[in-house]
Amino acid sequence: MAFILCFILSTFLQTFSVVAQPIRNGSIPLGASLTATDDVEPWLSPSGDFAFGFKQIQGKDTFVLSIWYAKIPDQTIIWYPQTYPMVSRGSKVELSNWWGLILSDPQGSEVWSSRSNSDVAYGVMNDTGNFVIVDSNSSNIWQSFNNPADTMLPTQVLERGGVINSKLSQTNFSRGRFQLQLLEDGNLVLKSRDIAFSVSYVPYYESKTDDPSNSSNSGSQLIFDEAGYMYILRRNGQIVDLTIRNTALTSEEYYHRATLDSDGVLTLYTHPKNPTTNTTWQAIWFEKGNLCSYVGRHNDSRACGFNNVCNLETLRPNCECPQGFSLLDPNDPNGECKLDFTPSCDEGESNEDIDFIALANVNWPQSDYKRIRPVSEHECRNSCKEDCFCAVAIYNADDCWKKQLPLINGRKGRTEVAKALVKFRKGEAPDHIPTNFPREKKDQKTLITIISTLLGSSVIVNVILIGLVCLGFIMNYQKEDINHHPSSKVVNTNLPHFTYQELVEATNLFKEELGKGAFGIVYKGVIGRNIVAVKKLDRVFNDGEKEFQTEVNAIARTHHKNLVQLLGYCDEGEQRLLVYEYMSNGTLASFLFGDGRPSWKQRSNIAIGIAKGLSYLHEECSTQVIHCDIKPQNILLDDYYNAKISDFGLAKLLMMNESRTNTGIRGTKGYVAPEWFRNTSVTIKVDVYSFGVLLLEIISCRKSVKNNESGAEYGEILTDWAWDCYQDRILDAFVENDMEAIDDYKKLTTFVMVGLWCVQENPSLRPTMRKVIQMLDGVIEVSEPPCPFPFSVTSS
Prior knowledge:
The chain is of the alpha+beta class. The chain is built from 14 helices and 44 strands.
């Protein structure tokens, strides 16, 4: 017994020694770990040039698992995991057998893994900046150079199919809006991408090293050699220069790195290894392509975010919000801009109440929805004034393009000869409106004249009179300052505000009903030439004007392909209405449970679209949104059967005494997560549960709850039937012999397994929606789900 205790104690001390001792020779033994704290020592390369560990993000209590330059004051990060790079304090990374590097959160849940899938022997932090995992046969089974973040280092190679993504901003290490990729055809390209969908757009730069007529002449590798020179190696051995060889900046004296910056520019930087002064990284080469100037076929936001403007006359893309706009996120100058005021078409508001900020040489080429010609500038202004959807008009010669928000691909420069007319209501004019929009009061001019006159009087009289005038000026200013505060009824959003009477007329006295929901009735309407859906809310706070405005503002800031777009609102008296885009193909419920079975391909695409919409609400909105009522009736289909989630953000608009139904839950029978029945906190995982039920409905085209009057084999509860079919391996019965789905049996099995994971009674077992997307797309393997309902649910 004593021997066993000694052995255990010895093993424990050895393990503790591995974990606790700083590693300085580059070799990391199996079992070594680091914890995200302020004073943890990283794993250093032999020379000390590079470090592996946790770096705290400046100004935040958040850490990044990363590799960085350790010897220079600017400890620049050059690698981090491409998924879930930012973690909270107390997170841990460990070098383990088989899986390699495992990053876990403070609760011990895995966040990221290198997935080495082999018998790991040790790790190495090399002086090249490459972290390598080695197996028992001394073979390299994983390395950071083969899994780059936003940076390449000397000796690093990017193979065909390799991708480098920019980060979102200087302090946000999530995947950004740009990527560098060596395509399978050998062409090196820079592309912008849709963050929500990971879809890339038409390249704004390409090396043209593809050769369809002669594959041996096409690009094979992007090489960053040890001297700091970058080139494309063709399959036939020829070299295509990207940078120039600089013999003055040798690798013995200078660090080199090539980074795809968050502004979309691929930049080669150098930094002296032993600086004599306080120096920083110097850019010696960059490639921006036609990032600012190119306008492709896709409505993607390129160099700058929505409503932002890119300066065509600067070397690098320089984004700036035009007059009348301000940054949505002050920390992201290349991000989205928002209007500083709210144009609207209130009843009784004349054209005299509307004016324009004129911006010379500014244009958003892809945001127009209507062109009028020939017209004068005066006629162009009037046409925009009278159109609630018109936020900006572009006038050039006798052409007038009316544009609505959000504005895309903004550009500024002398080559843009047009004039942008930004609409605003005079009573809400921002402080930074140009001087051609005077706000000076007549009485203020009079004060200036009086003061000037007083200067000719005696000094004592001047002092007394000036004091009295200043006192009056201050009192007058305070009065004006009070009067210039916008009304509390103004929602801080770019959305048009409609009067109740306007929406009564738009819906023809609320004649055509499109559907009913938990929040009210939806009617079909027409505003201008646009068909819209008007939701008349009947369960909102009677005195909840502030709450309504807050939620409308939050909903207005959401922009995603799989969310129904909010177009306007009304908050007049007790009337609360929301104006949405019209979805021509109705609800998913009608599509799934109507006559005929939709194709398996359509259903698969719809399921993935819904998952992406929910992931956006849960993880990418500035304020997290829990839908609370995901069901087929709240999923709408557009002209092309793309799924769009509706009624998101409305849960907070329910009256306080109706925030839970009589059964003690919020949501709809058959889709409600078990935690609603218990006295436990509700999180985004309630939406994951509802999505799981919905996914099983989409797969089987059967309702989640059904009376067994017809003798249907699956009984009342669809989740039970799904588990039985999965356990008995009879998924053909679950899809009712849908041959298209059965022919795609691997995908069918994956979808059912994902559905079963989502409907687990234990919320912690349910995946996040981001992971759901990865599983549905086949990016990660789906493990065997346990029984979703190991114990019965009782209402508390």
